Task: structure prediction
Amino acid sequence: MSERLRWGVLGAADIARKAVVPAIEASRNGQVVAIASRDPERARTFGIGRVMGSYDALLESADIDAVYIPLVNSLHQEWTSKALAAGKHVLCEKPLAMNASEAEAMAAAASRHGKLLMEGFMYRFHPRIRQVVTEAHDIREVSASFGFRLRDPANYRARPELGGGALYDVGCYVINLTAWILGQPETVAAEGKSSEGLDTTVSIELGFASGAKAHLFCSIEVEEIQELRLDGLRIDKPFTAWKDPDDPYRLMVEAFADAAFSGSGPPLSLQDSIANLRVMDLVRRRLGLGDLGHRDHLPEAGQ
Ligand SMILES: NC(=O)c1ccc[n+]([C@@H]2O[C@H](COP(=O)([O-])OP(=O)(O)OC[C@H]3O[C@@H](n4cnc5c(N)ncnc54)[C@H](OP(=O)(O)O)[C@@H]3O)[C@@H](O)[C@H]2O)c1
Result:
């Protein structure tokens, strides 16, 4: 392996263009070698040296060590599994999968192939939120909200079959942050608005063995909101708005490359990713969005 991790990107996605490709290029230990897209013309505008018209062809490239997967959520499992089988390390966007069973299969594939797999929760690398969580002791009540207004009806976030909806897009953050602070919940209750299989606003109540509680909100149909309250202490913009003093995307890809070179485990635990999806599975069930195949281990709310 060369000194810099050689990355390939699957999909000319908005988040790759805006944040992750620039972060890899700015990183001390990575470089972007190639990008693959169904639309090579669009991918060419990224300015990456090699543009490929097929995801499979990129995975066959011997000069790529790691693959970044910013595909629509419904494709995360398929392409992560293929990339791991092709001998690549994988950084896959959040949510890692559509449900916990998919994520378990992905984690098993990473272990089988001896490759690194991590979910791209960049906010967890931001020094400010890390400090907030480190200093949070004996918290009894967490409130967290993440919402915005989806204005483009053609965006995949408006299409349930591609993994759209508020829960997958921004709900995964509020659940993940809560578990980082309080551990995994014992009970899950949820209500929300959904139409034709697409959840647009969701409220979630989590209960913890300690007696602590969390009140969570996510939406794709409200004015922008991003907030955390820890026992009443308000922290603004916990998830995305802190490029100062550091870029969490760059810190994430650097930590990932360090782990790939050292052979250590992923900087973010796959068990946490699976647990996050277990809670999301239950929320989806509460909303009547269907059982996605996972048999949960959490008790029903109120039991
Ligand atoms: N960590 C973060 O800060 C952050 C922020 C935003 C999004 N995300 C995550 O990143 C992923 C992509 O989000 P995005 O906003 O960048 O989405 P996007 O611009 O729509 O990109 C999605 C990519 O998926 C591919 N794709 C394959 N089949 C598709 C289909 N049927 N319809 C549409 N696209 C299809 C496309 O690749 P081709 O180039 O091959 O067409 C497209 O570039 C999601 O998992 C999302 O949750 C993370």
About this structure: Residues 292-303 have pLDDT under 50 and may be disordered. The first strand starts at residue 5 and ends at 10. The chain has two domains: 5-123+246-268, 126-244+276-286.
